[in-house]
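for the writeup, i need someone to sanity check this before i put it in the appendix. the sequnce is what the collaborator sent (i think, or maybe the updated version? ugh). structure was predicted straight from it, no edits. if anything looks off just tell me and ill rerun, i have time this weekend
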Amino acid sequence: MCRSRYQRLVCGSFAALLLLVALPQAQAGITFQANYLDGANEGFNDTSVYGGSTLGAVRRNAFEFAMNIWGSALAPSYAGETITIDASFDGLGGTSTSATLAEAGTNRHWDLNPTNPLLYADAIANHNVGYDILVGASEGTAIFNSDVDGSTVLGTKTWYYGTDNNAGANQIDFVSTALHEIGHTIGFQGLIAQDGSYTGSITGGAFSEYFSQYDYFVVRTSDQSILRNLSQTDRATAITNNDISWGGAQAIAANGGTLPKLYAPSTWASGSSYSHLDETTFALELMSPLYTDGTTHEISALTMGMMVDMGWTSAVPEPGTLAVWSVLAITTSLVRRRRRD
């Protein structure tokens, strides 16, 4: 098991009310369940009156709706395959025009082959070996910004917890944000640092650096060189020079035969750079770094192609039959959706 920087974020002691919710599946898919870590009367357990319900109840309903979408999209590799996500709300701050909506990631990585420096995110590792490696442990963590529901962060904008994809002009759609963050918890994240080094490590491991199943498919766009085979200096240059793309066959096919560009701005953005699709090219894609008004509650063929490249099994026979994002929109404020860093 790799004890990575992602795991350290969730190893602390939580004084919290734990509520485990299993989701019924509409079809044969993977079961997602939430482990709510908020204390009594806060976050997902907030008892404030909200419409005809409570704020906590509508938040849980929206998050479970998003989990069910992912669960229906992924086919299990073994009976009872279940992914548990530790979920909570916390004050992540922000300004009147910019904020981190949420942060998420896998809880740990696993070394499935000691002769190879390739690590697998917890949920993908379970899927690949065909059983739950660490029984009873959550596979990922997602933390949502409770400050968005206040009057300071993002001004008058607030979370929209409806499941009808009908967020208003001054609302941030929670379901689409949750879908994005769940993607990070199940492996859509790399282990590269700003200086081009890989941060995965194993005590007593045979290699000085370990990369993840996400890193495995990243290439330098300019010459299609496999990024992990380049020098650390060359990697650092590529990831801050708009010069990285995805090299997996399934995603390339879903993108019309073209390498899907990854987000690599000249200024490294911790939690956003590298582990997202390029914002300019794919503003309406689920796994782009910024929230865009009007995105839908669907998983595109491109996103699913990347997931299949990394080792997931799609519940949909052909990638082309997956719904593609199609709603045009304009981003009215800078709102980052990020992986945990």
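The CA atoms of residues 75 and 315 lie 4 Å apart. The chain is about 20% helix and 20% strand.
thx in advance!!
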